[in-house]
Each structure stands twice: as C-alpha cells, then as structure tokens.
C-alpha cells in the first residue's frame, strides 16, 4: 500500500509546487477573511459608538436633503423641535425653509453661504420650534456632503444649538445699554479689594460724557477720574470716601471737577457698597449739579454778599467770626477786627449823586483788600462802614496789636489818598476802630460793638484817625446802656423830683432857689444829675426830662406864689441848650407860665454847652424875656466863649463857677478873676451869683468884691421842697421879725 508520503513522492515536482502555492494562497485568504471580519466587526462597533455619541450630544445634529427634508437627526435636535421621537419629527417636517425659519429668507441666505463656501459656521436665526411653533433662537453650523466620485452635492449635514436664553440676555443688555445711555449722569462701579487696591470695573457712556474721559481709556487707569477733582475739594473728597469705607455706608458727596476739556462742573456722586468675597464693590451714580450749585451760590451771594462791592456782608462777617473764635481759642492765637467808617461819605453822596458814591465805595473795597492778606476778611456792613478781620494777628497781645495798628495805618493811608471817581477827584479819610480778640468772647456781635465804640472814639478825636478799644470804656459803655434803659423807664414812671438849693442875698435872706433834679431810682436810691443829664442829652431824652423839670419847677413856683411868705422867692431852673432849641420848647413853657408870675422865673444855661447858633437862641430868649422870664449864664468862666455869649445873648445874670469860689482864699489869680467878673457884671447890668460858697471866708471875699447873690453848702445843700420851704420861712421870718422890730424902734 502506498502511504500518503509515498503518494507525494510519487507526484511530479510541478504538481507539488502548485499544491504548495494553492495552500499558501488559501492560508492568506483565510487570514484576509479573518482580518476583514475583524475589521468589519470593529467598524460596526465604531459606527455604533459614533451614533451613540451623536445621539447623546447636547447639540442637535442632522442630515437633510438639499430641498429641505430632514433625513436624520439626533435626539437633541428632535427635542429642540419639540418632538419626542425621530420618526414623529421626520414625518412632520416637509420643508425646512418654510416651516422652520421665522424669516424664510434666512434659509436662502444659509444656503447661499453654504454653496459659496462649502460650510457655514455659527449662523444665527430665529426659528419656530417645529412642533409647538414657539419662536426660539438658534446658531447652526453646516457643510455640504458631496458624492465622492462626481462631487455633486447630496445632503446638508450640520449642528444646531439653541441660544434663546443668550439672545434674550443680549437683547436685554442692549436694551439696558440704550436706557443707560439716556441717563444724564454717569454710572460707575469700582472695587476695593481687601488690600485697599482699587479697580474700576464699569463706567457708563454717560460717565464719559460727564467727565470728558475718552471711551477708549483703559479702565485700569484708576487715576483717570481722581485727577479731575478740583484741588480745593480734594481733601473733603478723600475724607468722605474714607468715612464711607470705614462705616460701610452709602456715599453721597458733592464736589467740583475740571473735565478733560477744562470745563468746571459741580457733581454729586452717590454709591452703595456691596460686600463680595475679596473686597467691596461700590455701585454708583454721578450727576452734573452745576446748575443747582450755581443757583445755590447765587442765593448765597445775595444772602451773604454786598451786591455793590461783592464783599461779604454783615451776616457773613458774623458767621465767619463765629467760626474763627473757637479756632483762636484752641490755638491760643489772637485776631483783630478793624471797624472802618468813611468820613464825610454822606456829603459826597448828597453833592455828587449816588452813582459817584457807589463808584467810590467800590474803589474803597478794592483798596481795603489791598491792605490785607487773601485769607483775611474784608466786609461791608453798612452804607459807609467796612470791617477788616485779621484772623491770625499773633500769639500775644503785643504782637497782635502791633499788626492791627500797622494794617489800620495802611487803611488810613490808602483811604486818605485821592480817589478818581468818574470825572471828579475825591480826597477823603476814614476813622478806624481796632479791637483784639482771643476767642473767649461770649458773642461775636460783642466784638463788633467794641470795634464800633473804638471807631467812634477815633471819629471823636477829629477823624482820619484810629483808636484801639479800651475795656474800661466798654464797661462804661455797658453801664451807660443799662442806665439808658432805666432812664426811659424812669421817665414813664416819673421817678424824678426836684430839690431846691437856696440863693441868699447880701443880707442873708433866701431870695430864690435853684431847682436841681434828683432821680429816685427804685434800686440805686437817689442819683445825682451829673450821672444822667449828659446821657439824657446824648440820647435825646433830655427834651422829655427838661419838660418834666420845667413842669415840676413851675408847679412849685405856682404854690409859692400863692403863699404870702414865699411869694417873692425866685426860682432858677437849669435848661439844656439842646432842648431849648427844640421846636416844642417855647410853646411848652409858654403854656406852663400862664398861671404864674413869670418875672420870678430864671432859666439857667451852661456856658460851655452853648450852641454856635447864637442868633436863633437869642431870638427865642427874647420871646420869653418879653413875657418876663430871666436868663442866667451858669458856670461862667469855664468855657472859651463866656464873653461872646454874654455879648450876643440877652442874659440877666451870671453864675461864677464854683471852682473859682473854691480857690478864692488861696489863689490870688482866682481872686482877681472873680473881681473882674463881678466888675464886668456890674458894667453890663447883670446880677452876679456865686455858687459853691462853702465857708464864711469865701463869703466875706465875695461880699467885699460886691457879689449880689450867694449859693452853696454854707447856707444849705439842695433839699426837697418841704425842707426848702421850712428853711426859707424860718430864715426870712427871722428877718421879718427884725424888720418889724426895726420899724417899731424907728416909729
Ligand atoms: P449846676 O447847675 O452848676 O448846679 C450846681 C451843682 O453844685 C449842684 O449839683 C449842687 O448840688 C452843687 N453844689 C451846691 N452847693 C455846693 C457847694 O457848696 N459845694 C459844691 N462842691 N457843690 C455844690 P447837682 O445837683 O449834682 O447838679 C449838677 C449839675 O447837673 C448842675 O450843675 C446842672 O448843670 C445839672 N442839673 C441839675 N439839675 C438839672 C436840671 O433839672 N436840668 C438840667 N438841664 N440840668 C440839671
Ligand atoms: Ca445851675
Ligand atoms: Ca453851676
């Protein structure tokens, strides 16, 4: 039997080779088939994986025909279209262009781009959610799938993503942006991190408009805004912000900026803080408040400034002083206030007209400002009254007063040199009152009042002068003021009474009396006239007081004349020349003397207060003299115009001033003077009265010189009416007894 090997051996060698080739081919084929199967298996797996991947993508994926029919779509797209399954969708969609796009022209545009470029990326359209017809926004990207061989377009394939929310948000943002642009002010946002570093996170267009900061300016430049803040407001700006950061409360601040284009604006900034993890975000708004501020400034200008000179007015002055006093006190510094009154301004105004007056005042303001530093205050507080405040004049009184006097001197020089006012040249002067203060003063108007007092002193000293306030004068002034108030009340309540001082003849009889007024003050007791007559004269109350005295005196005289023992007694009443000159004096006295014998009435005028207008005084005196009233010139010899008075005015009597009488014993010169007066009185036919006769030696001298009447403590001080009556009756009664005895003896 032949084994297989034998058979092989038996075969021809060509056949063997053939078999071998076939075998190799078979093996290779098997391997290929195996590989192919493996490959197929793996590509099926890949496809499944891809499909799954696509199916689960959140983006919609599709394939559609060129004429708009959906062929395939993943789940996301099915859902985007409002369907629950692909088959439902595929059966629903027939024409994408017509059914899908809100604006069908969008589909055309999409296709145009696709065919032009082969693909489209992020093409945004508004479409209908196919099933529900709800309008939504999508972005889609797509490509054309072509036949590989012919290159002919076969399908569109692409992806779709819904962006409705994003579009809504963008639209809303745009909407807000438009609104924000309409806001007149500027919105801003900045962040302050925990290390205190600032970053600007947002500025609206309005902010750029308001500030002039260019819109392309990088936000990182935080100083772009702060450098616009006006120099003078920077400190308060910083302080207000710091305070807000500290307290974490809202910010609200007004300040000035100079815009990038150089325009000055007032702005108001408000902001609210919001705490975030790494700091605080401030959301704020800035608005232009220039118009309101300008109005406020204008109103302030009207309320606090003099419209003519533009200087601060009285109110502003008092406000400023009120602010400086505590500062003075705190820093131990002294200030000075100069009260300046223009001399003769009224005359300029009256003669040259108000325009010239105004122009002069404006120049005065300018010159005053030139005398002081910029931070000192110059104010106009009245028609022709100005005030200069030197807020810091020095630490001690000496330095402060030296500085104040220097400035007051400059003021006098400035205001004393010629002014060119319009067409005229005006040479004027001023009176300056200076007061120093140290902040301990209780009231600001007190300081002003003191300076005013000093100014009056300067004016009294002949104008074009300065005077420093003297505290003693202040005390007198305040006492004077209190007394004036009391005096007014006293007139209403009739607290005045007359005392009478007898006048003796050469024989020692009481032939008359001088009425001397006394003020019975409810608290201070009896006040002598020297203490209140000058005040009454200065304040004008003398007229009323004078009338009262006249009425009381004439009433007394009336009583005496009804009494046989007293009917010869004369009465002298002191009359202030001022009230004698007033219009109602003559009618008043004429009315009063109707009921008495006027020849027993003498009116005394004090020589040194005699008015210059002698002609008018003489005329009035003559009118009364015709009725029988006499006139006496009091305090004779003390004034400069004694003789002139006597020559020009129709006096009947002179009263030698008490000071000469006092020295008659000791001074030869006074003796000579008294003798001369008495001789002159005799020549002129005047009665001579000596007052202040206090002792017998004085009386003896006077008698030997030929004096007619005597008055003084030697006989009696001024006493109330009853005491005087008693004295007169007693003294004259004794004479009557002697006379009667003498008569009896001679009979
Ligand atoms: P006067 O008219 O020179 O009055 C004389 C003053 O000398 C009175 O002072 C009187 O009290 C005082 N006196 C009298 N005798 C002596 C004396 O021996 N020695 C001294 N040292 N003084 C004597 P009084 O009453 O205080 O009056 C002062 C001045 O007040 C008066 O001076 C007079 O100018 C004024 N006066 C008084 N009463 C009135 C009045 O009713 N009207 C006005 N206008 N002035 C009056
Ligand atoms: Ca008198
Ligand atoms: Ca007198």
Could you characterize what this model shows?
The protein has 747 residues and is α+β, with helices and mostly antiparallel strands. It has four domains: 54-169, Beta-Lactamase (2-Layer Sandwich), CATH 3.30.450.20; 183-294, PAS domain (Beta-Lactamase, 2-Layer Sandwich), CATH 3.30.450.20; 306-469, Alpha-Beta Plaits; 495-728, EAL domain (TIM Barrel). The protein is rod-shaped. The model is unreliable at 1-5 (pLDDT under 50). One calcium ion (CA) binds next to loops.
CATH superfamily of the largest domain: EAL domain
The residue-averaged pLDDT reads 90
| Sequence stretches where pLDDT stays below 50 over 5 or more residues | 1-5
Biggest β-sheet, characterized? 10 strands, mixed
Could you tell me how far the N terminus lies from the C terminus, measured between alpha carbons in angstroms?
A: 238 Å
**What compounds are bound to the protein?**
ligand C2E, calcium ion
**CATH top level of the largest domain?**
Alpha Beta
Bin the strand percentage.
15-25%
Classify the helix fraction into a percent range. 40-55%
Reported CATH architecture of the largest domain: Alpha-Beta Barrel
Structural class: alpha+beta
Output the radius of gyration: 59 Å
CATH topology of the largest domain: TIM Barrel
How many structural units, i.e. domains?
Answer: 4
């Amino acid at each position: 039997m032949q084994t297989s090997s034998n058979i092989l051996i038996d075969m021809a060698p060509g056949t063997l080779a053939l078999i071998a080739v076939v075998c190799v081919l078979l093996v290779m084929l098997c391997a290929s088939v195996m590989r192919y199967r493996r490959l197929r298996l793996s590509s099926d797996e890949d496809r499944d994986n891809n499909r799954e991947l696509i199916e689960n993508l959140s983006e919609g994926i599709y394939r559609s025909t060129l004429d708009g029919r959906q062929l395939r779509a993943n789940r996301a797209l099915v859902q985007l279209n409002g369907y629950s399954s692909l088959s439902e969708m595929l059966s629903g969609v027939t024409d994408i262009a017509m059914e899908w796009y809100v604006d069908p022209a969008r589909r055309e545009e999409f296709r145009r781009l696709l065919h032009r470029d082969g693909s489209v990326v992020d093409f945004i359209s508004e479409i209908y959610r196919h099933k529900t017809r709800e309008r939504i926004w999508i972005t889609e990207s797509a490509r054309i799938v072509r036949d590989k061989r012919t290159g002919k377009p076969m399908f569109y394939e692409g992806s779709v993503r819904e962006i409705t929310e994003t579009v809504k948000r963008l639209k809303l943002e745009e909407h807000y942006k438009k609104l924000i642009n309409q806001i007149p002010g500027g919105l801003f946002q900045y962040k302050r991190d925990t290390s205190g570093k600032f970053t600007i996170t947002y500025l609206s267009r309005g902010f750029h408009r308001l500030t002039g900061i260019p819109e392309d300016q990088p936000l990182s430049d935080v100083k772009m805004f702060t450098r616009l803040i006006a120099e003078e407001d920077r400190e308060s700006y910083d302080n207000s912000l710091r305070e807000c950061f500290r307290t974490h409360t809202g910010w609200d601040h007004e300040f000035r900026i100079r815009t990038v284009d150089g325009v000055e604006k007032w702005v108001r900034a408000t902001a609210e803080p919001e705490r975030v993890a790494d700091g605080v975000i401030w959301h704020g708004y800035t608005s232009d408040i220039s118009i309101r501020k300008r109005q406020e400034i204008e109103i302030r200008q009207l309320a606090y400034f003099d419209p003519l000179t533009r200087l601060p007015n009285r109110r502003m002055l008092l406000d400023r002083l009120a602010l400086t006093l505590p500062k003075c006190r705190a820093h131990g510094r002294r200030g000075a206030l100069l009260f300046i009154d223009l001399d003769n301004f009224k005359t300029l105004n009256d003669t040259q007209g108000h325009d010239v007056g105004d122009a002069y005042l404006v120049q005065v303001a300018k010159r005053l400002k030139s005398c002081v530093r910029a931070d000192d205050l110059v104010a106009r507080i009245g028609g022709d009254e100005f005030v200069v405040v030197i807020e810091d004049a020095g630490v001690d009184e000496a330095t402060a007063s030296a500085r104040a006097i220097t400035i007051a001197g400059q003021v006098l020089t400035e205001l004393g040199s010629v002014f060119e006012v319009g067409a005229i040249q005006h040479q004027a002067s001023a009176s300056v009152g200076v007061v120093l203060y140290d902040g301990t003063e209780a009231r600001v108007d007190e300081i002003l009042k003191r300076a005013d007092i000093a100014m009056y002193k300067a004016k009294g000293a002949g104008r074009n002068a300065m005077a420093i306030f003297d505290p003693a004068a202040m005390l007198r002034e305040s006492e004077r003021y209190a007394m004036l108030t009391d005096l007014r009340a006293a007139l209403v309540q009739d607290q005045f009474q007359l005392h009478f001082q007898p006048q003796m003849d050469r024989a020692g009889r009481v032939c008359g009396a001088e009425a001397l007024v006394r003020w019975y003050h409810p608290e201070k007791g009896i006040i002598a006239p020297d203490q209140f007559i000058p005040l009454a004269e200065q304040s004008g109350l003398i007229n009323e007081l004078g009338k009262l005295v006249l009425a009381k005196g004439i009433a007394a005289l009336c009583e005496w004349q009804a009494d046989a023992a007293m009917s010869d007694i004369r009465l002298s009443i002191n009359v202030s020349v001022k009230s004698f000159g007033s219009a109602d004096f003559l009618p008043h006295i004429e009315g009063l003397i109707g009921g008495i014998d006027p020849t027993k009435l003498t009116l005394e005028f004090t020589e040194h207060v005699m008015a210059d207008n002698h002609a008018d005084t003489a005329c009035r005196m003559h009118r009364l003299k015709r009725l029988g009233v006499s006139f006496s010139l009091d305090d004779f010899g003390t004034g400069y115009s004694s003789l002139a008075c006597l020559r020009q005015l129709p006096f009947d009597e002179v009263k030698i001033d008490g000071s000469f009488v006092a020295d008659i014993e000791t001074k030869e010169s006074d003796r000579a003077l008294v003798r001369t007066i008495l001789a002159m009185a005799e020549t002129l036919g005047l009665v001579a009265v000596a007052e202040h006769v206090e002792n017998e030696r004085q009386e003896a001298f006077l008698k030997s010189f030929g004096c007619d009447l005597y008055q003084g403590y030697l006989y009696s001080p001024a006493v109330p009416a009853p005491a005087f009556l008693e004295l007169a009756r007693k003294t004259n009664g004794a004479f009557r007894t002697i006379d009667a005895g003498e008569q009896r003896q001679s009979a």
